[in-house]
Design goal:
The complex is a heterodimer of chains A (264) and B (448).
Chain A: H1 4-11, H2 17-41, H3 47-78, H4 92-99, H5 104-112, H6 116-139, H7 152-155, H8 161-178, H9 184-200, H10 215-221, H11 229-235, H12 242-258
Chain B: E1 13-19, E2 32-37, E3 43-48, E4 52-58, E5 72-79, E6 84-86, E7 91-93, E8 99-102, E9 110-115, E10 120-133, E11 157-173, E12 183-186, E13 192-196, E14 200-205, E15 208-217, E16 230-235, E17 242-247, E18 252-256, E19 268-270, H1 283-287, E20 291-294, E21 300-304, E22 308-313, E23 322-325, H2 334-339, E24 349-351, E25 357-361, E26 366-371, E27 377-381, E28 397-399, E29 408-410, E30 422-425, E31 431-436, E32 439-445
Parallel strand pairs in B: 28-29
Antiparallel strand pairs in B: 1-32, 2-3, 3-4, 4-5, 6-7, 8-9, 9-10, 10-11, 12-13, 13-14, 14-15, 16-17, 17-18, 18-19, 20-21, 21-22, 22-23, 24-25, 25-26, 26-27, 30-31, 31-32
Classes of the chains: A mainly alpha (264), B mainly beta (448).
């Protein structure tokens, strides 16, 4: 078992300033997405304002991407040995039990000891989300935005057992979502939110229903990223199978990226 | 007591007049959206969100009132633009007047250009103080006389009448802008003018309304690649072939119309390198230039971004020669200002007649003046409380932290709904016009 404190220190290069930066990153992301969506609803949004907000969103996006990239390459080399206690696809109950610990630090530790393959897949899933965010921004600028498949980055990965599981799980979401009638420029945004939203709030949601994304939905979702992982994980403690667990992982990773790392 | 800015050490700014309703409840249509003195300073024009133009004229200086200059009184009011509907795009076009620019006076009449988001109009403002009486073919009330009843001829006589000021639209320059017009600028040749929207700049001839030349086009082939827009443009005051335009990324491009028909390639590119230590998520937004103005001399230009005013020497592109902080205390509040949209406010700036001082607005109805020679600056407030005739304006100060002194106001107490976006300085004298929402304040120096 890898010592818990050691790994965390590798990422703490920016010291205390990192937490302020992350909370500002979260605020800017929240506010920018809210403004972006509100402007999309207008018939003729102000072009200067749209350009400035889009550029800010891109900046946030690249910062998140940089943080994700700084996570995955560091973990892989140190965790190549298979961990008997933490093999992939541990039963949801067991994994959820570890996540449901009320102590935020413990849940972080559980995140830290996931296998390298899981981390890599998670990073890729996050990259997929970020690409979707990119597509949303691009879609907002014109009616002829290119539509990208949400699974592209995951599909391009080298095969691994977990990936297969996850791909199928997410693929099932994607298939059902494709049946929903949406406007072309909303499709990318819908895909993004579908990946995240259903897992957190409405696990039983009938995905065949057409749904429209409102700013409230997004705002409702995004602040939850900054909740403590224990709270969010306990509220989503439902034994719905692998798919739910995987989506929660993605959410958990986003959560970790956005909030304060506790002092070691 | 801080000496005044703009005219020497014995200088104090005093309240002169305020125009507009006192009501707390401000009608949206009454919000002033542009202020401009004409070339002589005799006339002061304002445009509002309701599409109206109000022109004030300075009365002749009275010999009885030696201690004050002439007051500005309403000279003419007219509806310049009406709301329109673009049926093709299902869009309403606002009647709000974005800019007014005067033409130099060439005869008894006055001419100005007024622009909303899509259309520019040339207005002629003329006086009529005589009326002809004694027509042969019609009665005094205008009815035609029976021709068989006319037995004698008489010469009509010009009789004085009450002064009537008429405003009539002489030219309408329409259908040339897909995006919203942000600037108009009359060229020094007095024959042409330019109009700029978010992505294009057009050159017009004042006599020709059915066509214009597109001289700058920054629209990308794929709108998804758009990351920068035009925010302001102005013609050089003396060189009729030179103009500048500013961008949302804090850059200014100077173009020479002799170099090419299309000025997409600039002659000079002005940009200050970013200070990496002050980089934040809002760096780009606050660097967006909201106004650009040439000095009267034509040697300098001034730009306004969210937190500062910069003076550039046209001969030096890599950085401004002077930078003045308008409200640096807002730098730590940028996230909140982004959230409440204040960060997108477009403040204007202006030079005094001799280019020795510059002025710009801020929040809480504060406005700032900077003396370029003494490097002194002053913050004043446009408020009804200080509106006694010839009352001296007291300098204001914002407390940024620690102990707040008496008469200081803390940053958190500033009213961000009271913003001074539009100011104008008389071309020859120390008289300034400051638009505070729906009120127009006129201040002048105290004559010693």
């Amino acid at each position: 078992m890898v010592a818990r404190g050691q790994k965390r220190k590798l990422h703490r290069e920016d010291g205390g300033g990192g937490s302020a930066r992350e909370s500002q990153l979260q605020s800017v992301l929240d506010i920018s997405m809210d403004k972006f969506l509100r402007d999309q609803a207008l018939v003729e949004p102000c072009l200067l304002r749209s350009v400035l907000i889009n550029n800010t969103l891109r900046q946030v996006q690249s910062e998140v991407r940089a943080q994700v990239e700084s996570l995955s390459p560091v973990k892989i080399p140190t965790k190549l040995k298979p961990e008997p206690d933490f093999t992939q696809l541990s039963p949801p109950a067991e994994h959820n039990a570890s996540l449901s610990s009320p102590n935020a630090e413990n849940t972080e530790d559980d995140f830290m000891v996931w296998t390298s393959e899981e981390d890599f897949s998670l990073s890729s899933a996050i990259s997929a989300i970020l690409k979707d965010l990119d597509a949303v921004i691009d879609a907002g600028q014109g009616p002829c935005a290119s539509q990208r498949a949400p699974l592209r980055s995951v599909e391009n990965l080298t095969p691994c057992p977990l990936r297969t599981e996850r791909t199928s799980a997410v693929a099932s979401f994607a298939k059902t979502e494709l049946m929903c009638p949406v406007r072309p420029q909303d499709a990318a945004l819908d895909k993004l939110l579908l990946d995240i939203d259903t897992s957190v709030f409405e696990p039983e949601l009938n995905l065949l229903q057409g749904f429209s994304v409102t700013a409230d939905d997004l705002v409702k979702y995004l602040p939850s990223l900054s909740k403590s992982p224990s709270a969010s994980s306990s509220s989503s403690l439902v034994s719905n199978g692998q798919a739910m667990w995987e989506i929660q992982e993605i959410e958990h990773v986003m959560d970790i990226l956005m909030r304060t790392y506790p002092q070691s | 007591m801080m000496a005044g800015v703009g005219g020497g050490n014995d200088f104090q700014w005093c309240f002169s007049q305020v125009k507009g309703a006192i009501d707390e409840d401000v009608a949206e249509a009454d919000i002033i959206s542009t202020v401009e003195f004409n070339y002589s300073g005799e006339l002061l024009a304002t445009g509002d969100k309701g599409g109206r133009v109000v022109i004030f004229q300075r009365e002749q200086e009275s010999k009885n009132r030696l201690l004050s200059r002439g007051e500005y009184n309403v000279y003419s009011t007219f509806q310049s633009h009406e709301p329109e509907f673009d049926y093709l795009k299902s869009l309403e076009i606002e009647e709000k007047i974005n800019k007014i620019r005067w033409l130099p006076q060439q005869n008894a009449a006055h001419f100005l250009l007024s622009a909303n988001d899509k259309t520019i109009k040339l207005w002629k403002i003329s006086e009529r103080d005589k009326r002809a009486e004694g027509y042969n073919l019609k009665d005094e009330d205008g009815r035609l006389r029976d021709q068989f009843r006319i037995t004698t001829l008489r010469v009509p006589v010009l009789m004085p009448m009450d002064l009537m000021v008429e405003a009539s639209p002489r030219r309408i320059f329409a259908n040339a802008h897909t995006y919203h017009i942000n600037s108009i600028s009359v060229n020094s040749d007095y024959e042409t003018y330019l109009s700029a929207d978010d992505l294009r700049i057009n050159l017009w001839h004042l006599e020709i309304t059915d066509r214009s030349f597109n001289i700058v086009d920054i629209k990308p082939a794929n709108m998804e690649e758009l990351t920068e827009v035009i925010t302001a443009a102005e013609c050089h005051p003396h060189q009729c072939n030179v103009f500048v335009y500013s961008s949302s990324k804090g850059t200014i491009r100077l173009c020479d119309m002799r170099a090419a028909a299309l000025c997409d390639r600039h002659s000079k590119f002005f940009e200050e390198p970013e200070d990496p230590s002050s980089r934040s998520f809002f760096s780009e937004i606050i660097s967006s230039i909201s106004d650009v103005k040439f000095s009267h001399s034509g040697r300098y230009m001034m730009t306004r971004d969210y937190l500062s005013v910069k003076v550039w020497d046209l001969n030096m592109e890599n950085r401004p020669v002077e930078t003045y902080q308008v409200h640096e205390y807002l730098r730590s509040k940028l996230c909140s200002l982004y959230e409440n949209d204040c960060i997108f406010d477009k403040f204007e700036c202006c030079w005094n007649g001799s280019d020795s001082a510059i002025m710009t607005g801020s929040y809480n109805n504060f406005f700032r003046m900077f003396d370029r020679n003494t490097r002194r600056d002053i913050t004043l407030e446009a408020s009804r409380e200080n509106s006694k005739p010839r009352a001296m304006l007291k300098p204001r100060k914002v407390c940024t932290g620690g102990k707040r002194k008496k008469d200081e106001i803390s940053v958190d107490s500033l009213d961000f709904n009271k913003k001074i976006l539009h100011t104008a300085w008389h071309p020859k004298e120390n008289v300034i016009a400051v638009a505070a929402t729906n009120n127009l304040y006129i201040f002048q120096d105290k004559i010693n």
